[in-house]
Amino acid sequence: MTINWEGVMPAITTKFNENDELDLLTFEKNIKAQLEAGVSGIILGGTLGEASTLTPAEKETLVKKTLEITAHRVPVIMNIAEQSTKEAIQVAKNAKAWGANGLMLLPPMRYKATDYETVVYFKEIAKSTSLPIIIYNNPVDYKIEVTIEMFEELLTECDNIEAVKDSTRDISNVTRLKNKFGDRIKILCGVDTLAFESMVAGAEGWVAGLVAAYPAETVAIYKLTKSGNIKEALRIYRWFMPLLELDISPQLVQNIKLAEVATGLGSEYVRAPRLPLRGAERERVQAIIDGAMATRPQLGEYKSL
């Protein structure tokens, strides 16, 4: 399946039950809500998906279940976040065998690789697979930045590296990438609180977090922005901002799962060492969610834009 790398691509949460097992019924409900809202792809096993806690068997189950639910309507993309090149290549092979349509690649985990080591890591994975790839560039959380110079080498040698999830939190990076590479690389914003600004600057899409709880509002902002209806996009975006700020937190998984409860698209169950929010922090987050639910905006027809 060809991936256009545009629109809204949810970084899906992994649903668990009270016994710490995959909750595939709730997972299916959420995926169907994403499809109904008009998302352009599904990304599995990212930070929000609690990837570091998932077993290979659970990852296989999630990929195959998502393919079943989506029925090839949108691409299914598997995240790779491993400690060694050997492990990353194996995950890439597994993902293709399971039927995934693309890969999202993080730099090496735990070890702070040099620029040279990071480029070699990405190239060896890319050359081991025919699947299209989006590079996840998040120096804030993962301490390794994929620079313009590094992208230049990667894009020259690896045709299947096609896009970047830009989480640098530097809005001008969209313009730098466009000035340097034009349409050779597609840009998807990876920071919820900069999505509108990034798309106005030329980013083709949004790898979103709060979309897990609010799929229609997220896709509406994208569609309205790209169709030029900035005023209406801003109306929804400004309402959304207190919720979007829940994504830029070490507890983003717990925050977003609590929001999923409010919209009926998930539960609070997380996998240890993560634990559900409690005390004053839970009250603070719940108050933000309650306030947003009380003022949830009416959406006009956006899907045909």
UniProtKB/TrEMBL annotation:
The residues that cross the membrane are: none
Q: Which Pfam families match?
A: DHDPS
Q: Name one GO molecular function term.
A: 4-hydroxy-tetrahydrodipicolinate synthase activity
Q: Which Gene3D superfamilies match?
A: Aldolase class I
InterPro entries in the cross-refs: Aldolase_TIM, DapA-like
Which residues are responsible for catalysis?
Answer: Y136, K165
The UniProt keywords, alphabetically, are: Lyase
Instruction: Give the residues the record marks as binding pyruvate.
Output: V207
Q: Which PANTHER family match?
A: DIHYDRODIPICOLINATE SYNTHASE (PTHR12128)
Q: Which family does it belong to?
A: Belongs to the DapA family.
Q: What's the protein here called?
A: Dihydrodipicolinate synthase family protein
Q: Which organism is it from?
A: Abyssalbus ytuae
